[in-house]
Amino acid sequence: MSDKDDNVTRLPTSEVEGYDDLLEFDADEFLREWQEADRAAVGLLREALPEVVSTTAPGEELRPAVERIRARLHDWPYRHLAAAADWRAGPPQDDAVLWLQATGALIAMNGESGLGTHEESALMTLQHADWAGAVIGLARAGVGSRAWAADLFDYADACAEIEGSYDPDDREPVEQGFELIVPVWEAVGALDEHRRLTPLGHWGLPRALAWAWEGSLDEGAS
Which of 74, 92, 152, 166 has its CB 3.0 to 4.6 Å from that of 97, i.e. a possible disulfide? Predict the structure, then answer.
């Protein structure tokens, strides 16, 4: 989005104006601001999607999805999800926790995913507003709604809770990131084979984002 460019960190070289600013970079302040952005994004999800907060996990879809993840940890894309979720000690025993961590792993990037540099860079280009806008819009559209990369971009662009708007040049890089996550969400059962939102995805995608941002969609829910 046009007002997001200021949040992109670019590392200048000695030949670039502003190199001295790098020497004044405050890592603690950057981390504090990033954590604040995480908390704000989780709060936004909770406020925007009360109908999702009030739902429970669809066990009839969750169980086979988790069984598939556990059985295929050495296959694509599950091995990358396990690595990005930092499951070095093994996947979680709790089914819901495992599914949320697998689904949000490539957003959190708690470990090295094993994806190529280009793929990781494309995913990390996406910011809180991109993810939140896309998932809020998709959840509001409801079960059965299309979730191709172009659809996710349109949901994010139209999301009333997200300030600012996309520039025309934003579509390509944002869609590239979404193009990488769509088959992953299909693999974990958040989307069906036609890339439409499933009941599991409706319940779980907002919660997976909240987990990736070190929060919980259910925190404080009545």
Answer: 92
Query: Which pLDDT tens digits describe the chain residue by residue (222 residues)?
Result: 544 444 433 333 334 444 455 456 567 776 778 789 899 999 999 999 999 999 999 999 999 999 999 999 999 999 999 999 999 999 999 999 999 999 999 999 999 999 999 999 999 999 999 999 999 999 999 999 999 999 999 999 999 999 888 999 999 999 999 999 999 999 999 999 999 999 999 999 999 999 999 999 987 543
What secondary structure, in 3-state letters, does the chain show?
A: CHHHHHHCCCCCCCCCCCHHHHHCCCHHHHHHHHHHHHHHHHHHHHHHCHHHHCCCCCHHHHHHHHHHHHHCCCCCCHHHHHHHCCCCCCCCCCHHHHHHHHHHHHHHCCCCCCCCHHHHHHHHHCCHHHHHHHHHHHHHHCCCCECCHHHHHHHHHHCCCCCCCCCHHHHHHHHHHHHHHHHHHHHCCCECCCCEECHHHHHHHHHHHHHHCCCCCCCCCC
Total residue count of the chain as it appears in this document: 222
Q: Are 21 and 11 in contact (CB under 8 A)?
A: no
